[in-house]
Amino acid sequence: MIEPRTSPADPGFKEAHWHAEVPGRLNGSGPIAVMDIGSNSVRLVVYERRCRAPTVLFNEKVLAGLGKGIAQTGKLAENSIDLALGAARRFRLLADQCQAKEFHVLATAAARDAANGERFISEIERICQVEVKVLSGAEEARMAALGIVAGIHRPDGVAGDLGGGSLELIDVTGDRIGTGRTFPLGGIRLSEAALGSLRKAEKLAADALEKSDILAAVAGRSFYAVGGTWRSLARLDLFQRDYPLHVMHNYSVSASDMAEFCRIVSRGDLETLSRIEVISRQRRDLLGYGAVVLGQIIRIGKPKDIVLSALGLREGHLFGLLDAEERLQDPLIVSAEELSLLRARDPKHGLELAAWTADVLAAMGFAESEDEARLRVAACHLADIGWRTHPDYRGEQSLNIVANGSFIGVDHAGRAFLALTVFYRHMGLIDDALSPRLIQLVPPPMRERARALGSAQRVAMNLSAGMSGHLPEIGVERRNNAIVVKLPRRLADLNGDVVLKRLKQLSKLAGLDGGVEVAG
User: Which of 10, 119, 265, 401 is such that its CA lies 20 to 30 A from the CA of 25?
Assistant: First the structure.
């Protein structure tokens, strides 16, 4: 008789299974929980582990509204305190349930400005059993800037973190961070100071920002927008444009287009706006004030574009915990490697594929910049993540995973390039099955590179079966008007019709012939 499997209801289940290593997760330094006590929301995010590209294991927020009324009373309202403390009790239990090895609590404007903030923080510390780090305005700006450094490849501009109580601005160039400035322009504080008038809020924002030395330095550069209100604003813009990706991180809009959108949002009736249903009702009250502040930043600072960041204070805090070597890692490559480790037949094959395709693209005549090289390496790590899917759907599923994945350190054109490459790798050069709007995110030269790289991966898969070992022994070179694959004698029998057919398809993209040569 076959014994039934242990069920979750059995007393021995937790001991036998729950604490075992989880194949679908990367264990090690985590999980790590971070609770952020802001002026509008209290949020818990549990990250899988401490690394250059942290993955969210659990995420929940409570809109406690701690910043409401501080401008009038100077104190946190009792009902908001009750909501926040209830959230803290729940979040401590959830962090324990996730088996978090570390629990970090950060508090911002409301807690530091309120007369009863110290008493509130003491109660949070009692509940969470950890010390709360109450951030100054400068520290808050710095952590938001570190979030930009962590999530944006080579940032160059000014980061702005809009919360419920304050706005922090700070210059970011590469990994260099300037001195932060704090303005009393958070959504809750601004709405109360303006007595609910968006017109008055516009004047208050203009007066506060007009002589900002940081905004004077953003002209012609990017403005990196951080915070829930600005994410909601960008989400509404994204849906109104029928944009092909619903990924907020690195969503970029020209400054002129965003200025016009901010004008529409701040001057009109929100409930009449197209697609307003994509914004939760809890977020709508502050949407107009976020639009007012961003509109003034654009008017005064004259940035070239507005780039949304899904990474902010919490991720900046985690980035600050990394050692110097970890900070220098490329988050896109790290994310791709981790996905390969979790999904590919043989993660080592991705490394070999990256080296091999470099030779193939060089033989085809493609020059390669540093940015193009990192995209190629990432695409090779992602080349085999769909192998468990039915063959007819591997291309489509791989494309969707990559296009909508939680990658950082890559803009939307690069993300779409990676998605197209893995699609071509599985399905061949079939554009008919692709969304034309997704293709339009990729400039024509990048599309041709994606086709070439996907075709090169197809050849490689028929030589290696997607497993490590063969590719380092197989040479590729340009010889006259042909791309020649050179097989060592011991692998001579790999030569076959499928390999030659795919090699000719690849070569045709460069206007060349293709052939296979076996070493003598």
Answer: 10
